Amino acid sequence: MPAPVNRFKAALKAGDMQIGCWAGFAHAYPTEVLATAGFDWLVIDGEHAPNDLQTLSAQIAVLDGEHSEAVVRLPVGNEWLVKQVLDAGAQTLLIPLVETAEQARDLARAMLYPPEGIRGAGAALARASKFSAITDYVATANAQMCLLVQVETVRGMENLDAILEVEGVDGVFIGPADLAADMGHLGNSNAPVVKEAIKAGLGKIAASDKAAGILAVDDSVAQDYQSWGAQFLAVGIDVLMLAKTARATADLWRKRV
Length: 257
What we know:
Layout: H1 7-14, E1 18-23, H2 28-35, E2 41-45, H3 53-63, E3 69-73, H4 79-87, E4 92-95, H5 101-110, H6 137-140, E5 146-151, H7 154-158, H8 160-164, E6 171-174, H9 176-182, H10 192-206, E7 211-215, H11 219-227, E8 232-237, H12 238-256
Parallel strand pairs: 1-2, 1-8, 2-3, 3-4, 4-5, 5-6, 6-7, 7-8
């Protein structure tokens, strides 16, 4: 019995558009609710949301068998963090602040079992192998691993061509907010020079054999990103969705009474 097919990775390879959303509540229950919306992928955010291994694992579990594929964003690219979250059942990782091809290569090796990589092979007690129920997990898992690297600094953009050459990287995600900050436009990813950098970056990624990804919570900006080459596009953040709806409802009733 082989490792489960990574449908998100397969869709990227096929060139299919994948629409996603951020899951930031750090709890399985709202992530399970979010999965009913039918997004192709959900980012379980370990960088800016208060997640730990236990909450990440619980959210990966509730997405098992759902239409929405789990994409786990780690707080940092670290081989033992990669190992832990892959053993918890993740197949797709999003790693922030990748600036060089060397970093990307190290991450790609951390995703894979030997001889291609350095992932520890103790899958017998892991959720990933369904606790040894997937008898061929170790032999078949490498093909289903999907690595997405975030390029979100000037240095990263300067090294984008080299990063795109790294075997084992499936997609490159541009981080607009951090890129804008690094370019001297903190809080303004719509600054013309930032938009031009994003457009050029998405186009370059889309022209390669990697998939281009990005997040936008403004609909018109998201449409721009799609037209510039984004293939895996996140169009919302669950925390902001709740906050926006709650505030609008409260404001409406304040005006009524």
